[in-house]
Each structure stands twice: as structure tokens, then as C-alpha cells.
Amino acid sequence: MTLMGYHASHEENGPADLLRYVQLAERAGFEAAMCSDHFHPWSQRQGHSAFAWSWLGAALQATDLSFGTVNAPGQRYHPAIIAQAAATLGYMFPGRFWLAVGSGEALNETITGEGWPLKSQRNARLLECVEVMRALWAGETVTHRGLVTVEEATLHTRPAQPPMVVGAAISPATAHWMGGWADALITISGTRPQMRRVIEAFRDGGGADKPIFLQVHLASATDEAEAQQQALARWRFSALDSTVLAELRQPAQFDAASSHIRLEDLSGSVRISPDPERHVAWLQADRAMGYDRIYLHEVGPDQKRFIEVFGERVLPALTGS
Is 7 assigned a catalytic role? Predict the structure, then answer.
């Protein structure tokens, strides 16, 4: 059975509101949750970007859900610090926290003032960071000098089981590379051929028996026109190529770069419909593709309505309850 989760978007909602939303989501029947980990929002229209790691402790305490976040260790975050943060959550909430890792976006990582490496260099740095974190979770004293530097680091508070390391990939090439070292994969919804290519690449790269998670961006609203307006206003940048998403440095640049995006351009990145049955059909097709977990991200502002409607009409149709 595919686990159905709620995505908590720190870019679009304040942390106190998000804490309330994950509690509502749990009561509505969502079985898991995840959140973003940004320094800046994608767009100036979004208006928020709280510190995910402060919020995660509160969210894990306030619910019984599992939680994950997508993180880019190596520049904004030192891998030993992320290893410590993840170990602490894993120790306090056994088996409920997972860590997704990716090569990051300039939007968040370049605040350190360092140069922004090429994708190949960011990938190499990411794998070094994962190796450092896994060694620390295993109780080793780590000294490492490469694309990141660690000097005699030891974690003294560790969970019985290390957090699951989930590779975050949009492209088939990245998914194939992550198949060899990640414990699982998380990717995003797109066209069916795009989604199949990412799944196949991960499986072919070494992830044949590993879980795959899906994040679905959607706009449901109360009618078609409102759903379309919300998708364009709040998530239009998602139609940009992934290479562009990784390189722009300020929310205003994302707004400028996506100003030409039309509604039809979003068809591959945001599922737009006020009809719960349409979303059920989409999600049933997702399940048929073999995803182990699906995390739903409503891009519109009325999270309470989304949680209630999907809890009443979408989740039961998927679970048979």
C-alpha cells in the first residue's frame, strides 16, 4: 500500500501555521509528512522561509507522523552539523525521520559568499558529504579533506538506526547516479514519460529494490479558474528547466524568469483541478507506477480546505476506507 503524505511548504506558509496544518493533516488521514528546507522562498509572492530544523522538532513532537526534509549539505550547511541535527531527531523520535539530499540551488546555498560550483562538482561534494554523515552516524571519528573539510568530528548522541538517506533527483541522469548510493529516491511529478524515465534510471543505477517517493505539486481550490490562478501566481517557476532552477540566486530573478510562463506550460509540473475525483485518478496512476510514498503539496493558500477535502474524498478513495 502506498503511503500518502502531506508536504509542508515553508516558502508559502509561516511555521506556526504549518505546525497546525500537519496536525490537521494527521487527523484527516495523512500518514506521513515532509517539508522544504530553504533560506529564500522561490518567489517574492510566497513571502516565507523559516528554518526547517527548528520546526521539525516541534512537528515531530506535535504529531505521530514520520517526517523528512530535502537538504543540500556542503555549502550553506556543513555535513557534520547536518549529521548531528539528523542524529538528534533520530534519537528523539526513533524511526520517524529521514533525510533527503540533493546538490542544491544557488537560491539558498550562495548566501555563504562562496562560488557556485558546476553540477558535476556539486554532485561530487554531495557524495563526500553523505560519506561523512554515514561515518559519523556509525560512531567513527571523522577527519576528511576534500571538497569539504572535517577535523576530528565525533557524534556522541546517535540513534540506534541511522536516518534513511534519500536521494533527491529531477533528471534521469541524477537518479541513475543516486541509485548506487542512496537508500531511496524522491522525485517530483511530471508527465508520465518523464516520471517513468526517472524511475527506470534509478532502478538501472543500482536502486532496483529501493523505495521511491514522489512529491506531487497540485492546485485544487474551489473552482477551475481559481485553481489555475493559484498555480500561476504561486508555482509558475516550476515550468522552468531544472538547470535554471539551480542557478538563479534571488526570488525576484525567479519571478522575472517565469513571467512569460502560461497556464499550459504548467501542465507537466502542477496538477490543476478542483475535482477530487480527478486527483484520485492521477494518484491511482501514480500508485500503479510503483511509488512507495506520495507527498501532496497544495500550492494554494487554503491549506485547511485542501486537507479537509482530500481527507474526506481523496484519501479514502485510495485506501478503500
Answer: no
